[in-house]
Amino acid sequence: MDRPTPAERFADKVTTAGPWSLRRDCPGPCHLWDGSQNEKGYGTFWAHGRTVKAHRYAYEQANGPIPAGLEVDHRCRRRECVAPGHLDAVTHRTNILRSTNHVAARAAVTHCPAGHAYDQANTIRAKNGTRKCRKCKNASARAKRAEQREARLATVEPLRPRTTARILAQAA
Hints:
By secondary structure, the chain is α+β, with helices and mostly antiparallel strands. The chain is built from 6 helices and 8 strands. Strand 3 (44-47) and strand 4 form a beta hairpin. The chain starts with 5 loop residues before the first helix and ends with a helix.
């Protein structure tokens, strides 16, 4: 009996009648991987003497090798999907920004909480890489300096309050 090819074994582990993606740019239903999965939910497959990720194998079978510096992104956001129409070779940055994690959520923010735009002129990059609003930072620094100035120039209580009260009583 002949051994099945990796492509035949791969096809046996795919359910092509999966759910439709809720994303607009994903044509057709998801093809869900029924084989083994790793701890992060990505399908794994034994091919050519090593374990490969099922979505990477599906992309390579449909489109050829994955270009250097790119990674395969699930446009449908389902890790177990291996539908070739739902897979794109993109940069790591694009893959992260397409996701729903905290990095993508912060990158999608276009204005600070006070409503100032994060643009070239109004954005400061902090040492840790986060964005800061220049207008808000300047306003905060001005308020802090004014508070310190008020503290320095505050009226001083007299050392001898009785003497001051006697002088005021005599003047009246």
